[in-house]
Amino acid sequence: MGNGEEITRIIRENPAMRDVRTGLGSTPLHMAATNPDVSALKALLAAGADVNARDMDGNTPLHMAAYSNKFEHTKLLLEAGADVNAMSAGGRTPVAMARKSRADDVVGLISLWMLKGCKAGGKCAQASHSDIKKLLD
């Protein structure tokens, strides 16, 4: 997975690459959701990648970010309209995936998002890492 500039260039040259699938059904957004460099995720979201795409296990990019303890990635996916209630084939929601991997800050972020009934681009999108910590303390 490249950085945001590489992703933007690739998609500009071949738009179909935005939603290409691996043999396991993962999209570039699934992979970017676990990439340490958040710029790839931002580039894919800006290009209109499907935030609720499912891999063969029913996981969305939000499941992947939550399980990988990627706070910023999770926040960006939520802001872009990722479904917090999406169930994987194994019956897990993104918050359950975060709990499974002990990603406490991500659990807090998703829980706050759900508790406040947040919608993509809404006021909750402004919640910061420290806001979540205050709620959890």
Describe it for me?
With 137 residues, the chain is mainly α. Helix content is 49%, strand content 0%. It contains 8 helices and no strands. The chain is globular. 36% of the residues are buried.
Element-level helix/strand string = HHHHHHHH
Mean residue pLDDT: 88
Structural class: mainly alpha
CATH third-tier fold name: Serine Threonine Protein Phosphatase 5, Tetratricopeptide repeat
- Major sheet: none
- What is the global morphology? globular
Number of domains: 1
Which architecture per CATH?
A: Alpha Horseshoe
- The rounded Rg comes to 14 Å
Helix run count: 8
Low-confidence stretches: none
Distance between the termini: 36 Å
How many beta-strand segments?
0
Write the CATH homologous superfamily. Ankyrin repeat-containing domain
Give a short summary of the structure.
With 137 residues, the chain is an all-alpha fold. The chain has a single domain, classed as Serine Threonine Protein Phosphatase 5, Tetratricopeptide repeat (Alpha Horseshoe), CATH 1.25.40.20.
Helices and strands in order:
Blueprint lengths: L3 H10 L14 H5 L5 H9 L14 H7 L3 H9 L14 H7 L3 H12 L13 H8 L1
Helix pairs in contact: 1-3, 3-5, 4-5, 4-6, 5-7, 6-7, 7-8
